[in-house]
Write a structure and sequence with these properties.
The protein is mostly helical. The protein contains three helices and no strands. The protein is 61% helix and 0% strand. The longest helix is centred in the N-terminal third of the chain and has 21 residues. The protein is elongated and about 40 Å long. The termini are far apart. 0% of the residues are buried.
Length: 69
């Protein structure tokens, strides 16, 4: 059985994965270490998710971190 994802599905998957990394890094006292570990987890994903995350894409825009008040 083969599952095909639309471009929108792939974009949503990438946005969710990268958003999770951003939130994890922002929630800890060591954001660089947390982000590095999360990126390792994303790059070692396998199967359909791994293929989507490994593909080059321009649909994700980097955001500047929010300033703390």
């Amino acid at each position: 059985m083969s599952i095909a994802l639309s471009n929108q599905d792939k974009s949503i998957l990438r946005t969710a994965a990268y958003g999770a990394v951003f939130q994890m890094a922002a929630a800890t006292g060591a954001p660089q270490k947390t982000a590095a570990n999360a990126v390792l987890a994303l790059t070692s994903a396998t199967g359909l998710v791994g293929h989507v995350l490994a593909a080059r894409s321009n649909d994700i825009e980097a955001m500047a971190p929010m300033e703390r008040s």
